[in-house]
Design goal:
- There is one protein chain.
- The protein is of the alpha/beta class and 160 residues long.
- It has a single domain, classed as YqgF/RNase H-like domain (Nucleotidyltransferase, domain 5, 2-Layer Sandwich), CATH 3.30.420.140.
- The protein has four helices and five strands.
- Strands 3-2-1-4-5 form a five-stranded mixed β-sheet, sandwiched between helices.
- Strand 4, helix 2 and strand 5 form a beta-alpha-beta unit.
- Helix 1 crosses helix 2 and helix 3 packs across helix 4.
- The radius of gyration is 15 Å and the shape is globular.
- The two termini are 28 Å apart.
Length: 160
C-alpha cells in the first residue's frame, strides 16, 4: 500500500463533461482543476485523464457515483463504475468510488452566490469541476486515502 498522503484526482463523470479536481499532496485540500468535454457518442477521454494524472503526479482517483436520491444505484451509476474500472486498468492506479449526490447542486449554489450565470457554458464547466472538488473534499475529510479502494483490474488496454 502507498503512503497515506498522496495527491488524488477526482472525476465528476457526466454525459457531456467530466469535472476534474485534485487534492494537495498532504491530502488535506481539494481544488477544482478543469472540465473535460465529451464528444457525443464517444468514449470518455481516458487517455487525456491518464495524461493529466501524470502531469499532476496523482497516485489514485476518486470517481463520483450518481446515485438516486434514495441511495439506490441506476444505469448511470453502472456507467460511472465502468468508467472508473476502465480508468484503473488503463492507469494502473487505484480507483475509489464515492456518493456524489447533491455535489452539483452545492457547486451550482456556490457559483451563483458569487454572481456567475447559471446557463453560461463556462459556468456549467465550473460547476462540474466544483462538484468534483466538493465530493473529493468530503472523501478527504472522511479519512480517504490512496490505496484503500478498489484496485484496478488487469485489462486488455483498449480503453480509449
Amino acid at each position: 500500500m502507498l503512503p497515506q498522503h498522496h495527491r488524488v484526482l477526482a472525476l465528476d463523470y457526466g454525459l457531456r463533461r467530466i469535472g476534474v479536481a485534485v487534492s494537495d499532496p498532504t491530502g488535506t485540500l481539494a481544488s477544482p482543476v478543469t472540465t473535460l468535454k465529451r464528444r457525443a457518442g464517444k468514449r470518455a477521454p481516458i487517455a487525456r485523464i491518464v495524461e493529466l494524472a501524470g502531469e499532476l503526479r496523482v497516485h489514485g482517483f476518486v470517481v463520483g457515483l450518481p446515485l438516486e436520491e434514495t441511495g439506490r444505484e441506476n444505469e448511470w451509476t453502472a456507467e460511472a463504475k465502468d468508467f472508473g474500472r476502465r480508468l484503473g486498468r488503463r492507469s494502473g492506479l487505484p480507483v475509489h468510488f464515492v456518493d456524489e449526490r447533491y455535489s452539483s447542486l452545492e457547486a451550482e449554489a456556490r457559483i451563483r452566490s458569487i454572481g456567475l450565470r447559471r446557463k453560461a457554458k463556462e459556468d456549467k464547466a465550473r460547476i462540474d469541476a466544483g462538484a468534483a472538488a466538493i465530493f473529493l473534499q468530503d472523501w478527504l475529510d472522511a479519512g480517504g486515502r490512496v490505496g484503500t479502494g478498489e484496485e484496478p483490474d488487469q485489462g486488455d488496454g483498449d480503453d480509449g
